[in-house]
């Protein structure tokens, strides 16, 4: 392979074989190809795109640039991936619920990205929890508990890690082809039997339009299936936070309320648990543990209601270094912020829109996320009691509660939160939580 010719053919929209693309990716992974050529390669794909077969080849080459796990377990190996949104703590409920239903979940997750929170940051809000574990420990926890939520080691998809760093510096992140290969290479390296995808759309998501989300969902499903992994995607709504809390410890508290409370007495699961059940039911059906997604969703709800998911969560927390009594004493164990300030509505009406991206940035400004690589995160700060779309408010009613380190920071955040809500005279139409299924 001559990398210059590969780049030129991509630039000029000439045929490049899947094998040639794979060889280029291997060159990125082993260092033969420098940053300048990697950047030119990425820019050519951003501008001209690739075919389905080429996208699959990119995905598999990135996956195979490092370790690929193999499992010998008495149940299917399942996982879920979300494209990210505010107040999205689905993984913390879904992984133990799937494990309680007989699946094994080796969930390699990420930290906060942009305005969205990261699953690892949320889990590490629990005192003692460490998500960076060795591969032998990862295997042991998955085998013993049934689930483990951990960070990727340097040996998982190293070509993707290097190419992503180049893309981040060269304005080549926004490519469905490269995003697809990047997401799937890490997930498929975990040795999955099936995968469910949560592609979010709306004001709090990276994808703002349904068309964008559908294009990405279709690309992910087709590439994953082309790589041999049964996959379905749900396009889900992120025009309001998925849960009424944003911030690491606050979101864990919301998760524990669901895991320890189960299904509410009125029998209607809240939106977060509803989405967990839909995603989990789809995964169980793909893995052969349920006849269909609907029956699988019922199994997930039963696992939560009967406390089995909470037991799995507690066992995982303990295995990752957290307190053995976390499930029974989570309210005492989670850290909390010293200053709480109510955010009050300045007019009467209905909550018409919520700027989810804006709320995500409020949490980051409070110290709940990273502005620069290496920034420390304060797990206590964030927002709670966030008003829902379509809810009726009067002047002085609470829109949210700010959790902050100081009163000055809390008051600044409160002003920004007010600006993230629009109050309208008539009750707006509220979109459903699930927009569309792809690959069903």
Summarize the structure.
With 440 residues, the chain is an alpha/beta fold. The chain contains 17 helices and 12 strands.
Structure description:
The protein is an alpha/beta fold and 440 residues long. Helix content is 47%, strand content 14%. The protein has 17 helices and twelve strands. It has helices at residues 3-11, 18-30, 35-48, 52-63, 90-100, 119-123, 135-145, 158-169, 176-188, 210-226, 248-261, 271-286, 293-305, 308-319, 326-333, 356-368, 407-420, and strands at residues 78-82, 105-109, 147-151, 194-201, 231-237, 339-344, 349-354, 382-384, 392-393, 398-404, 421-424, 434-438. The strands form four sheets. The chain has a four-stranded mixed β-sheet, with helices on both faces. Strands 6-10-8 form a three-stranded antiparallel β-sheet. Helix 10 links the parallel strand 4 (194-201) and strand 5. The radius of gyration is 22 Å and the shape is globular.
């Amino acid at each position: 392979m001559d990398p210059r010719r590969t780049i030129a053919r991509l630039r000029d929209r000439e045929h490049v074989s899947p094998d040639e693309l794979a060889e280029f990716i291997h060159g990125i992974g082993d260092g033969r190809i420098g940053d300048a050529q990697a950047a030119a390669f990425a820019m050519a794909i951003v501008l001209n795109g690739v075919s389905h077969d080429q996208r699959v080849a990119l995905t598999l080459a990135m996956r195979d640039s490092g370790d690929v796990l193999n499992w010998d377990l008495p149940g299917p190996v399942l996982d879920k991936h979300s494209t990210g949104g505010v107040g999205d703590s689905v993984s913390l409920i879904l992984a133990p619920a799937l494990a309680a239903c007989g699946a094994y979940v080796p969930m390699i997750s990420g930290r906060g990205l942009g305005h969205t929170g990261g699953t690892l940051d949320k889990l590490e809000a629990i005192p003692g929890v460490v998500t960076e574990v060795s591969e032998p420990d990862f295997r042991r926890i998955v085998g013993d508990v049934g689930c483990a939520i951990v960070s990727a080691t340097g040996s998982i998809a190293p070509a993707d890690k290097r190419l992503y760093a180049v893309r981040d510096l060269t304005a080549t992140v926004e490519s469905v082809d490269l995003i697809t290969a990047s997401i799937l290479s890490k997930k498929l390296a975990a040795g999955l039997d099936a995968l469910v995808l949560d592609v979010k759309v709306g004001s709090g998501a990276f994808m703002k339009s349904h068309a964008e989300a559908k294009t990405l969902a279709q690309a992910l499903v087709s590439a994953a299936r082309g790589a041999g992994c049964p996959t379905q995607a749900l396009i889900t709504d992120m025009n309001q936070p998925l849960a009424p809390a944003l911030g690491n410890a606050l979101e864990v508290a919301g998760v524990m309320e669901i895991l320890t409370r189960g299904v509410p007495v009125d029998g209607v699961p809240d939106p977060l648990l509803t989405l967990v059940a839909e995603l989990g039911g789809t995964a169980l059906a793909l893995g052969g543990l349920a006849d269909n997604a609907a029956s699988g969703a019922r199994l997930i709800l039963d696992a939560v209601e009967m406390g089995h998911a909470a037991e799995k969560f507690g066992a995982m927390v303990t295995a990752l270094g957290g307190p053995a009594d976390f499930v029974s004493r989570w309210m005492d164990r989670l850290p909390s912020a010293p200053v709480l300030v109510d955010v009050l509505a300045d007019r009467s009406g209905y909550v018409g829109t919520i700027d989810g991206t804006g709320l995500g940035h409020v949490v980051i400004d409070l110290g709940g996320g990273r502005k620069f690589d290496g920034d420390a995160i304060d797990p206590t700060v964030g927002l709670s009691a966030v008003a829902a779309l379509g809810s009726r408010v009067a002047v002085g009613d609470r829109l949210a509660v700010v959790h902050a380190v100081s009163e000055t920071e809390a008051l600044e955040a409160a002003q920004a939160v007010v600006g993230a809500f629009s109050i309208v005279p008539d009750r707006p139409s509220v979109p459903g939580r699930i927009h569309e299924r792809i690959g069903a």
